[in-house]
Specification:
The chain is mainly alpha-helical and 136 residues long. The radius of gyration is 50 Å and the shape is flat. It has a domain at 15-100. The longest helix is centred in the N-terminal third of the chain and has 58 residues, at 15-72. It has helices at 15-72, 75-84, 110-113, 123-132.
Length: 136
Amino acid sequence: MKTPSITRNKLRITLPQIVIIMGIAVSVWFLSEFSEMMKTSQTIRAQESQLLATVTALHDQQTSLKLTQAYISSDAYVERALRKELKYGRPDETHIVVITPAAKVETQNSLAMSEFPPKQKPHWMVWRDLFFAPNH
């Protein structure tokens, strides 16, 4: 008597299937690394543009300050400062100073500001006059 043999369904993986699975796993790993590199690259580009804008603004400010420094150290600035701020002039020049009279401001009497409103009759007297002396 022969005993029937039980056959099991075994999962058989062949070598080409293993190579394909490994290829897919490596591809997924490369794609994830590449996306991280792209994010880092975008961050670096954003920082680069910010730094470039900052450097350009600082360069413009430096140029402006150098021009101001050159003007302040020149004779033209000294002459302008003497004429405008200190009212100096050359010996052959005549200066005219216009003095306007101060406007007269009337000061109000302190009593006028602190005056009280006119006194009124108490309410009971107003009611009494309304009822008992209507013809007044």
